[in-house]
Amino acid sequence: MRNHTRLSSRRQFLAFFGGAMLAAPALHPSALMAQTAVSASEFGLVPDTGLDQSAAFQAAIDAAANQGLPLLLPAGTIRLRDIALSEGLVIQGVRGRSFLAALDEAPIARIAGVGTITLSDIGFDRGSEPFAPDRALLEIESATDIGLYRCSFRNGEGSGVRIHDAQVVIDDCVFARLGDAAIHAMDSRGLTVTGCRIDQCGNAGIRVWRSEIGEDASIIMGNRISDIGWSGGGNGQNGNGVNVFRAGGVIVADNHISDCAFTAVRLNGSRNTQVTGNVCRDCGEVAIFSEFEFSGSVISDNIVDGAAAGISITNLDRGGQLAVCSGNIVRNIAPFSPVNPDVSPYGIYAEAETVISGNAVEGVPGRGIAAGFGPYLRNVVISANMVRGADIGIAVSVVEGAGAVRIQGNLLADILDHPVAGLAWDEVVEPELIANAGRYPNVSVG
């Protein structure tokens, strides 16, 4: 009886709902769209004219933001200059077909002092217009909750996106043929860059910088970065796939980074940074670099294949210390660097408060694993590594003033000159360091 009552009630509901739907006036699809979004075409925007449509575009943006509705872009190219994006704005383009192009040296658009803005499926293109290297196609400053999804940033002498003092998520975007960096972020409030494709940038892929050493908490994960040049010159300031400068708490993970003039991942003055699970191929200098005033670097489970040097954890003289280097594969190291003649080939190098453990190093026309240079050595452990096909398997500084190093449980194979050697700067002074470790108070073996 109860089941029959429920069935009857359901039939009555469906009959009433169906009658109400039939009685309601039919709405044209354009009327339905008008209730949920604002069309840029309503404000006189006509793609592919080559004319300046900045005023009409700005009016469309302001209207959409005031109504709390998304702004829909048509397919085609709209030429603009220095558009100010409004609080709470959502702009949706047609993927692969909606483009905003620059008119002059100004950025195409800016986000400044506002937040909760989402841009999706929009192409930003500099085209043939001149552009200052310190500017970007899109500039973001003092903003929160900014999202860029499935957008593209192409062409120009500057950067794709420049960020200052902002919280930004950049996901599944494309950056190509940019004179400086794909993404330059200064003093971020929490930058996330995931699933992006970055190619043919003049000086850098992604920069995570701070004006002073401090917590940053940016996450750079799952991106493909390739063909990064160093048109700005220098000996490491440019030419890096990911460059972390003075920023703390940054995660650089699971990226594929290749063909960088200098370094795949470069940490400079960073704090508590993780570099894990990256594939780094064909770098012109050191593939993974932790340098200068860094403190607390975890470099683990990366693959380095092709570089002038593999992994460097250095600059005890500038306060650089405290790292774990574990589970990495380093192979196919080149005999020299095409961009920095001061780099000698090695697989892994460390100076202070560092554990080097569980790594596999193969094919090094120099030192497989090296600890210290002159007196710049303090508290380094080298354990349970495999080194195959190197001139020197493990090289340790044994000069007066060098600090403690512990060597134990390593497997060395096909070593050309010395399995484990003691060095005074660049000179081998003890070719049988394991057998004669007792002569050097800073060396202990297990």
Automatic annotation (TrEMBL):
<dbReference type="InterPro" id="IPR006311">
    <property type="entry name" value="TAT_signal"/>
</dbReference>
<dbReference type="InterPro" id="IPR039448">
    <property type="entry name" value="Beta_helix"/>
</dbReference>
<feature type="domain" description="Right handed beta helix">
    <location>
        <begin position="141"/>
        <end position="232"/>
    </location>
</feature>
<dbReference type="InterPro" id="IPR007742">
    <property type="entry name" value="NosD_dom"/>
</dbReference>
<feature type="signal peptide">
    <location>
        <begin position="1"/>
        <end position="34"/>
    </location>
</feature>
<dbReference type="InterPro" id="IPR022388">
    <property type="entry name" value="CHP03808"/>
</dbReference>
<dbReference type="InterPro" id="IPR012334">
    <property type="entry name" value="Pectin_lyas_fold"/>
</dbReference>
<protein>
    <submittedName>
        <fullName>Tat protein</fullName>
    </submittedName>
</protein>
<dbReference type="InterPro" id="IPR011050">
    <property type="entry name" value="Pectin_lyase_fold/virulence"/>
</dbReference>
<dbReference type="Pfam" id="PF13229">
    <property type="entry name" value="Beta_helix"/>
</dbReference>
<dbReference type="InterPro" id="IPR006626">
    <property type="entry name" value="PbH1"/>
</dbReference>
<dbReference type="Pfam" id="PF05048">
    <property type="entry name" value="NosD"/>
</dbReference>
<keyword id="KW-0732">Signal</keyword>
<feature type="domain" description="Periplasmic copper-binding protein NosD beta helix">
    <location>
        <begin position="238"/>
        <end position="395"/>
    </location>
</feature>
